[in-house]
């Protein structure tokens, strides 16, 4: 990763905590597990806010939802509500396992249609993962060929794939009118508006059919909470807030998980011996016909180790959404004023040679002990740490295990004959994506 590796070089010279300036803007950079854990966990009260005037996960730049909201009572209330509602709609429960497995089956059926021809799995994977979010927030899924769904996913991809100059334009509004920036920025705004329009349309449908005795999904749960607070003049459970939170669930919950699964399949293609070992474990625990369940995870240490190594090696989110200090604080001898931007570099932890010998080597055995059991290691933090840990961590872990296991139970993935080996070095950006690659799926007997 371009800026992550640049920060890594700076940390060798200046240590794990240093300051960089972007014009007048001061940014404190945290590298390495010890510094990140000390700030986000031990000093959580001081390092859990968001930079003022920055709203990367807000479509209107004003309504901040959960992702962009400053650390305080409103954020705590909305995050607690979202966590409870996600649990109610099956996160960590068998009811959601069924929905994820339904998508895994649909994805497998779509792969079958390729009939052994080379194909790119990116779009199919995004369809499957997005549909899991749809079932939680909208209460329904989309068929893969639905034009509305295709348009929605294209807009999500555009927003997540925003260019650095568009990030800068958010910070420095005069940039928005420059000829080279204006058209791209307008295109980005249109994509954001398209997602929000779709979400608001679904919210209106829910309002028309709302029954307080039959709460179908996340939108219904939010509407119920909003109705309870109608007489409260400080009610923050508004329609715009709901639309923004759903927008954030889509953005945070679609591309990251779909990209991690694409990395997982790329590593299986590049390391057929590891793929074979995972499949042997799947066969011994599940056989050919029994569907995977989260209860099987503890019986499948090598599969678990492989997915953990995917998360470490790929590091799909090389750094977290920017943090900010909630108070004036002293950290490792530095005086840091309230409101200072804090950049948390997860890449530095996952690729630290002191934690991981040969960090650029893909090796699931890092997480297997001499008895063949899975060993959890604290240096793997793809969802970050502390109060701002990813809201959808449990959901993502369920999707990764169930979809990956389902696919390897049904197919062996290979490179097309004669195709050059894709690189394990990804494409830099807000998300660390694998280089586009083609693969072949051979149905297993």
TrEMBL record:
<dbReference type="InterPro" id="IPR036396">
    <property type="entry name" value="Cyt_P450_sf"/>
</dbReference>
<keyword id="KW-0492">Microsome</keyword>
<dbReference type="Pfam" id="PF00067">
    <property type="entry name" value="p450"/>
</dbReference>
<keyword id="KW-0812">Transmembrane</keyword>
<keyword id="KW-0560">Oxidoreductase</keyword>
<keyword id="KW-0503">Monooxygenase</keyword>
<dbReference type="GO" id="GO:0005789">
    <property type="term" value="C:endoplasmic reticulum membrane"/>
</dbReference>
<dbReference type="InterPro" id="IPR050182">
    <property type="entry name" value="Cytochrome_P450_fam2"/>
</dbReference>
<dbReference type="GO" id="GO:0005743">
    <property type="term" value="C:mitochondrial inner membrane"/>
</dbReference>
<dbReference type="GO" id="GO:0102033">
    <property type="term" value="F:long-chain fatty acid omega-hydroxylase activity"/>
</dbReference>
<keyword id="KW-0349">Heme</keyword>
<keyword id="KW-0999">Mitochondrion inner membrane</keyword>
<protein>
    <recommendedName>
        <fullName>Cytochrome P450 2U1</fullName>
        <ecNumber>1.14.14.80</ecNumber>
    </recommendedName>
</protein>
<keyword id="KW-0408">Iron</keyword>
<keyword id="KW-0479">Metal-binding</keyword>
<dbReference type="GO" id="GO:0008395">
    <property type="term" value="F:steroid hydroxylase activity"/>
</dbReference>
<dbReference type="InterPro" id="IPR017972">
    <property type="entry name" value="Cyt_P450_CS"/>
</dbReference>
<dbReference type="GO" id="GO:0008202">
    <property type="term" value="P:steroid metabolic process"/>
</dbReference>
<dbReference type="GO" id="GO:0005506">
    <property type="term" value="F:iron ion binding"/>
</dbReference>
<keyword id="KW-0256">Endoplasmic reticulum</keyword>
<comment type="similarity">
    <text>Belongs to the cytochrome P450 family.</text>
</comment>
<dbReference type="InterPro" id="IPR001128">
    <property type="entry name" value="Cyt_P450"/>
</dbReference>
<keyword id="KW-0472">Membrane</keyword>
<keyword id="KW-0496">Mitochondrion</keyword>
<keyword id="KW-0443">Lipid metabolism</keyword>
<keyword id="KW-1133">Transmembrane helix</keyword>
<dbReference type="GO" id="GO:0006805">
    <property type="term" value="P:xenobiotic metabolic process"/>
</dbReference>
<dbReference type="GO" id="GO:0005737">
    <property type="term" value="C:cytoplasm"/>
</dbReference>
<dbReference type="InterPro" id="IPR002401">
    <property type="entry name" value="Cyt_P450_E_grp-I"/>
</dbReference>
<dbReference type="GO" id="GO:0016712">
    <property type="term" value="F:oxidoreductase activity, acting on paired donors, with incorporation or reduction of molecular oxygen, reduced flavin or flavoprotein as one donor, and incorporation of one atom of oxygen"/>
</dbReference>
<feature type="binding site" description="axial binding residue">
    <location>
        <position position="390"/>
    </location>
    <ligand>
        <name>heme</name>
    </ligand>
</feature>
<comment type="function">
    <text>A cytochrome P450 monooxygenase involved in the metabolism of arachidonic acid and its conjugates. Mechanistically, uses molecular oxygen inserting one oxygen atom into a substrate, and reducing the second into a water molecule, with two electrons provided by NADPH via cytochrome P450 reductase (CPR; NADPH-ferrihemoprotein reductase). Acts as an omega and omega-1 hydroxylase for arachidonic acid and possibly for other long chain fatty acids. May modulate the arachidonic acid signaling pathway and play a role in other fatty acid signaling processes.</text>
</comment>
<dbReference type="GO" id="GO:0020037">
    <property type="term" value="F:heme binding"/>
</dbReference>
<dbReference type="GO" id="GO:0006082">
    <property type="term" value="P:organic acid metabolic process"/>
</dbReference>
């Amino acid at each position: 990763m371009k800026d992550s590796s640049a920060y890594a070089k700076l940390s060798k010279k200046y240590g794990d905590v240093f300051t960089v300036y972007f014009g007048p803007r001061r940014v404190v950079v945290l590298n390495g597990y010890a510094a990140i854990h000390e700030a986000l966990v031990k000093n959580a009260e001081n390092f859990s806010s968001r930079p003022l005037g920055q709203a990367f996960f807000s479509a209107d730049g004003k309504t901040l939802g959960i992702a962009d909201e400053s650390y305080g009572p409103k954020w705590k209330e909305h995050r607690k509500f979202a966590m409870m509602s996600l649990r109610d709609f099956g996160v960590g429960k068998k009811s959601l396992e069924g929905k994820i497995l339904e998508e895994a089956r649909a994805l497998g059926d779509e792969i079958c249609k390729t009939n052994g021809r080379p194909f790119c799995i990116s779009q199919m994977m995004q369809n499957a993962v997005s549909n899991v979010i749809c079932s939680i927030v909208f209460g329904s899924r989309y068929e893969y060929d639905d034009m509305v769904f295709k348009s929605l996913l294209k807009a999500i991809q555009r927003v997540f794939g925003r260019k650095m100059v568009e990030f800068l334009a958010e910070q420095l509004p005069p940039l928005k009118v420059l000829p080279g920036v204006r058209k791209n920025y307008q295109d980005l705004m249109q994509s954001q508006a398209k997602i929000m329009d779709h979400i608001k349309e679904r919210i209106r449908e829910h309002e028309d059919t709302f029954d307080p005795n039959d709460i179908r999904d996340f939108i219904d749960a939010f509407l119920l909470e909003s109705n309870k607070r109608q007489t409260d003049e400080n009610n923050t459970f508004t329609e715009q807030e709901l639309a923004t939170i759903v927008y954030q669930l889509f953005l945070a919950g679609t591309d990251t998980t779909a990209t991690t699964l694409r990395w997982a399949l790329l590593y299986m293609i590049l390391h057929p011996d590891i793929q074979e070992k995972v499949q042997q474990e799947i066969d011994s625990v599940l056989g050919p016909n029994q569907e995977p369940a989260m209860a099987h995870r503890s019986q499948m240490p090598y599969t678990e180790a492989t997915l953990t190594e995917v998360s470490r090696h790929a590091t799909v989110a090389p750094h977290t959404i920017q943090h900010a200090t909630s108070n004036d604080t002293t950290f490792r001898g530095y005086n840091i004023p309230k409101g200072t931007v804090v950049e948390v570099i997860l890449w530095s932890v996952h690729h630290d040679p002191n934690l991981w010998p040969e960090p650029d080597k893909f090796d699931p055995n890092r997480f297997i002990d001499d008895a063949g059991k899975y060993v959890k290691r604290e240096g793997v933090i793809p969802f970050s740490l502390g109060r701002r840990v990813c809201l959808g961590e449990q959901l993502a872990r369920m999707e990764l295990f169930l979809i990956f296991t389902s696919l390897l139970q049904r197919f062996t993935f290979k490179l097309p004959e004669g195709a050059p080996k894709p690189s394990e070095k990804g494409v830099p950006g807000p998300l660390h994506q694998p280089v586009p690659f083609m693969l072949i799926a051979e149905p297993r007997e």
